[in-house]
Amino acid sequence: MESTAVKEILKKVRMIEVRTRRMAENTLAGSYHSVFKGRGMNFDEVREYVPGDDIRAIDWKVTARTGSPHVKKFTEERELTIMLLIDLSASGSFGSGSLSKREVMAELAAALAFSAVRNSDKVGLLLFSDFTELFIPPNKGRSHILRVIREILFFQPQGKGTDISSALDFFSRVTKRKCVTFLISDFCLPDDFDDTLQVLRPKLQITSRRHDLIAVSVIDPRELELPHIGWITLEDSESGEQIHLNTADEWTQRAYTNLTKDQRERFARTVRSLGIDLLELSTDKPYLAALMGFFRSRSQRMAR
């Protein structure tokens, strides 16, 4: 790779690091910590009982041996593993504004990764298209996070399609420990939408039982309705299939909008019916506000 290209890559990675790291430290830090708890409590030490201690924590064996009451002290096992499962299918390169869907995914992933590192959590990465393209085992540290960001932005996938089911199968095979798992995709499922959703549902269910699974949908507003520009040729970026449409036709406009809306709503209902959180983002809106709102609602729900 030419040095100029390398410099451009490093410049873009650095730009995202500066923006998202500041965001993680100043805005997301408290919310992240409160929403994603540690795996449990670790035994720390035994000390003498003092008035006000919970009598349920009394260590009766030590108390009997020493002749004075002692209590067990525990500390929260804070360390978590955050896994980022990111869709690199060809449809992610689309963006009608300043950012493509893939760039929004990268920024979101970077913000989550820096939040995790700030809390001494590990971060891993799985990139997929119609097969698993890259797997980076969970680790800590700034250099590791910068590699994760670089791969999300600049990795050149071999596949063009989307196979979320096979990505979840691979993830289940290589990850034995429970993780907070972000499945980030535009969820542009193939034309056989019903069949694909039927296959995907049990995979999502199995993954959500083993891990804390959060689905993040990134869309572009231009995908939700057709522009009024007459006859156009639309090409599916994943399959290469082309269709000719008269976008000025009212029936065509309405049919396209209804189909797109119906599929997105059915997918959202399927995910939520499995008890999986769904965060919906759009390339034309700041993702930070949506992410903070998601953290707040999740924290309130967990507190009930």
Specify the structural class.
Answer: alpha/beta
* Unreliably modeled segments: none
Largest sheet: 6 strands, mixed
CATH superfamily of the largest domain: von Willebrand factor, type A domain
Describe this structure in words.
The chain has helices spanning 3-35, 60-66, 101-118, 142-154, 164-174, 193-210, 250-273, 287-303, and strands spanning 40-48, 70-77, 81-87, 122-128, 132-139, 180-185, 212-219, 231-235, 242-246, 277-282. With 304 residues, it is α/β, with parallel strands linked by helices. The strands form three sheets. The protein has a six-stranded mixed sheet, sandwiched between helices. The longest helix is centred in the first third of the chain and has 33 residues, at 3-35. The chain is elongated and about 90 Å long.
Keyphrases for this structure?
304 residues, alpha/beta, Rossmann fold, 2 domains, six-stranded mixed beta sheet, two-stranded antiparallel sheet, 8 helices, 46% helix, elongated
Per-chain topology:
Blueprint: H1 3-35, E1 40-48, H2 60-66, E2 70-77, E3 81-87, H3 101-118, E4 122-128, E5 132-139, H4 142-154, H5 164-174, E6 180-185, H6 193-210, E7 212-219, E8 231-235, E9 242-246, H7 250-273, E10 277-282, H8 287-303
Helix pairs in contact: 1-3, 1-4, 1-8, 3-4, 5-6, 6-7
